[in-house]
Amino acid sequence: MRFELFIATRYLRAKRRQAFIGIITAISIIGVAAGVASLVVAMAITNGFRQDLQQRLLGSTSHISLQRIADDGIQNWPALMDRLSKQPHVVAAAPAIFEQVLISRGPRAHGAILKGMIPKYERRVGDLLTTVKQGSAGELEDAAPAPPQSTPSEPGNAATQSNSNSKAADKSVRSTPADSTQSPDSLAAVAQRVAAMPPIVLGKDMADNLGATVGSTVMVVSPQGELTPLGMVPKYTRFHVVGIFSSGFFDYDSGWAFVRLSDSQKLFGLGDQISVIEFKVDDIYQAAPISRQLEDAAGKGFMATNWQEQNKALFHALRLERLVTFITIGLIVFVAALNILISLIMMVMEKTKDIAVLMSMGTRRAQVRNLFIAQGVLIGAIGTAIGLALGYAISYVGGHYHVLTLSPEVYSIDYVPFAPRAVDGVWVALFAVLISFVATLYPSWSAARILPAEALRYE
Q1: Beta carbons of 96 and 67 less than 8 angstroms apart
Q2: Residues 148, 150, 154, 160: is their CA dihedral positive or negative?
Q3: Mutual orientation of helices 422-439 and 365-401 as an angle, nearest 10°?
């Protein structure tokens, strides 16, 4: 052990004539430990929110979305989707239609984003359909047999087949009261009409607001009205609820609904067009260059956006919050460093005679200076070690047992996520030790300026 470190550790362990110095030293260690633990926990929380939000976003939406610049719909989309699916780094592709609608049930109404999709493709680019907790999303599949003259075998014919199925269902609804021998108001007739309605899957919070359950009937009103002799009339379709999903993300659970692609095309009068082609890629952090490749491959008139661009403001706010949190809570370490400064100054005053004796015996000024630097850094290192252990223990307990709950209506999740990272601990430890080192500069410089003759004159 070096001479300076040996003396520094002896000074820390030795009993002092002035107990006040020992109390300040203990407070300094506790202050550094509290600041380091607070920083570790704060970094774990902010990182947990970012990771949880990113995971939910990527699980609920696609990595890249391709649409027309003029927003006039994508025609001949099966061929285009098949061609772009073969591009490098593309894992899966899915057609979709997004439109704002009003969903109502009785006197209750709720604005929503209606997504028309084909389930077998949708499951490849997103996970929302796998979060159906009540009912099933299986009825969104176009399971009805095709007409004898049509043999659709390609994904592009799914929408045509679905349109024919929807028309057959509507015809069945219109013909049931006339052809059936039972009363149109009977329970069997009502159940038959409801079963013939197109299916819809609602988010949990939206279903709760509407008072809808599996088997309920809701009316979906499109803002794109249709022109009649009486003027512009809102266009609507009645759907029966076949499933309720719960993703844990409040924005989706309270504002999204899923229907078949063919039913959304019919509701919005799009024919065989779609609004978006969604893509899943093999590297989410390379989504920006991959989106530009897809945009070039699609040709003129198309634009592609990726998940980073769509949520740029959100992730920028999280990074800013992380920086502000680090600076704010880092002030605790700064206050602890002031305690280190005070304790070392008082230590120099108490050990003036000892310092003079050491210097008279041949100890160099640099060694005296290093002695008090080592003592201050030891105080900071001990506090940092305690703080790291305490901070990671709190983060583990909080993340493993979800001890802190949140309101999902406000925060989109129902608990505080903790995601501690080793790199954060390294940066926090370096910051704490650096602040402790800076606090030792003046006391150590002051100790090195002591003149042995002056200090021992009256001894």
Answers
A1: no
A2: negative
A3: 150
Compute the distance between CA of residue 287 and CA of residue 91 in angstroms, rounded to an integer. 12
Fill in the amino acid letter for 205: D
Continuous H helices in 299-311:
307-310
What does each C-alpha distance from 380 to 29, 170, 334, 354, 384 come to in angstroms? Answer: 7, 76, 11, 24, 6
As given in the structure block, the two tokens for residue 270 are 């799009």
Output the DSSP codes for 127-175. SGGGGEEEE-SGGGS--SPPPTT----SGGGHHHHHHHHHHHHHHHHHH
Helix H or strand E segment including 201? strand 199-203
Task: Encode pLDDT of 290-319 as tens digits.
Answer: 999 999 999 889 999 999 888 888 788 888
Phi, psi (degrees; rounded to nearest 5) at 406: -130, 165
* Per-residue pLDDT tens over the stretch 104-141: 998 999 999 999 999 999 999 988 888 898 988 888 88
- The answer to pTM > 0.85 is no
Q: Are strands 132-135 and 108-117 parallel, antiparallel or unpaired?
A: unpaired
The structure tokens 């279903």 sit at 207
CB-CB neighbours of 75 under 10 Å = 13
**CA–CA distances in Å: residue 150 to residues 95, 158, 232, 263:** 22, 11, 36, 19
Measured between alpha carbons, how far is 218 from 101 in angstroms, rounded to an integer?
Answer: 12
Tokens 């079963």 belong to 195
DSSP 76: S
Query: What's the distance, CA 323 to chain centroid?
Result: 17
Angstrom distance (rounded) from CA 330 to CA 333: 5
**What residues contact residue 3 under an 8 Å CB cut-off, 6+ apart?**
367
> Greatest CA separation found in the chain?
123
